[in-house]
Amino acid sequence: MPSLLRGSTPAIRNGTARSIASLERVTLGGDVQWLTLRGHDAGRPLLLYVHGGPGTPDLGAIRHFMPELEERFLVAHWCQRGGGKSYSRGLSADRMTMAQFVADLEELSLGLLQRFGQRKLFLVGHSWGTALGMRFLARRPDLVAAYVGVNQVVDRAEEELRSYRACLSRARERDHRKAVAQLEALGEPRCGVYGDVAGTLVQRGWIRSLGLVTHEPQHATALGRAIAMSSEVTVRDLYQLFARLRWNMELLWPEFCGVNLAREVPAVDVPVVFITGEHDRITSPELAHGYLEALRAPEKAFFPFPRSGHAACFEEPGRFLEVMSKAEAMGGLD
């Protein structure tokens, strides 16, 4: 459970001399950030997980829902600048840009590959992390064996419009008068953005309250509890996560809503896998499928998760592990 001190990650069960379980500081782009490194064998292929957001790290979630992943890979779980454990008072707003996050990702990837003597890593992005991931693929395909996008972002403006309409439709179906009134007063987003960040937070609040984040509401509760009770996370980290969420949104959301990967990244020289939750109402399974069909890549695959919403890898962890086995084969590392 969370502590008042630094936090820690538990030892690997039945670990060997080659196992690793560490919670570490790393300096990226001149700022201190955090990551966990976990694996039964430090010689296994590197897997770098890029969480969603912005500003919503989920340290501890992977080991909670899919510890088997740590048997196949050396899993690096990065807590990005500005969120939770990686927020500090000295963090400059000028460095809170998507370009800087991608630069951080490149610096982290190079450092991990050098440290563990590997040429390429497997990259997994979730939601916001998929926008960073695809931009990184376009920039440094030489560092990535295969890419897995979970709840893949494509066209943020269109996704936000669809999300708003799905939320309002659910509110009307349930005759939730307060939700209907607030959403109608908010109005549809323009270019993905409401009048201000407060509007986005209102819509996201109703998305959660109306049960549209995950397919089964208990999955959202379980995910939130796993993150909040993670030993990697301190009481201060939890405070920073909630206290700085709006700060992250104000700095990054307008830029994020300008993302259109179908235009920006029409081709990559890396095998690509997209995982979508069929009930996702934050990103769009239909847009992700269309983007993957048009994307030029040496190999690609699409996996819809039928019992998932916007947290597909955590809602159906067994299916996610199966997909990761296929992605590992596509990566072709010895």
How would you describe this structure to a colleague?
It is a single chain. Helix content is about 45%, strand content about 15%. The protein is built from 14 helices and eight strands. Helix 3 crosses helix 4 (about 130-140), helix 5 runs antiparallel to helix 6 and helix 6 packs antiparallel against helix 7. The protein is globular, with a radius of gyration of 19 Å.
- Structural class assignment: alpha/beta
For the biggest β-sheet, the strand order reads 1-2-4-3-5-6-7-8
Mean pLDDT: 94
Q: Report helical residue fraction.
A: 40-55%
Total count of helical runs of at least 4 residues: 14
Second rung of CATH, namely the architecture? 3-Layer(aba) Sandwich
What's the total number of strands?
A: 8
- From the spread of the alpha carbons, the general shape counts as globular
Radius of gyration: 19 Å
Biggest sheet record: 8 strands, mixed
Low-confidence runs? none
Beta percentage is 15-25%
From the N-terminal CA to the C-terminal CA, the straight-line distance is 38 Å
- What is the H-and-E element order? EEEHHEHEHEHHHHHHHEHEHH
**What is the domain tally?**
1
- What is CATH's topology name? Rossmann fold
Give the topology, please:
Layout: E1 20-28, E2 31-39, E3 46-50, H1 61-65, H2 69-72, E4 74-79, H3 98-115, E5 121-126, H4 128-139, E6 144-150, H5 156-173, H6 177-186, H7 197-209, H8 217-228, H9 235-243, H10 245-256, H11 261-264, E7 272-277, H12 285-294, E8 300-305, H13 312-315, H14 317-331
What is shown here, in short?
With 334 residues, the protein is α/β, with parallel strands linked by helices. It has helices at residues 61-65, 69-72, 98-115, 128-139, 156-173, 177-186, 197-209, 217-228, 235-243, 245-256, 261-264, 285-294, 312-315, 317-331; strands at 20-28, 31-39, 46-50, 74-79, 121-126, 144-150, 272-277, 300-305.
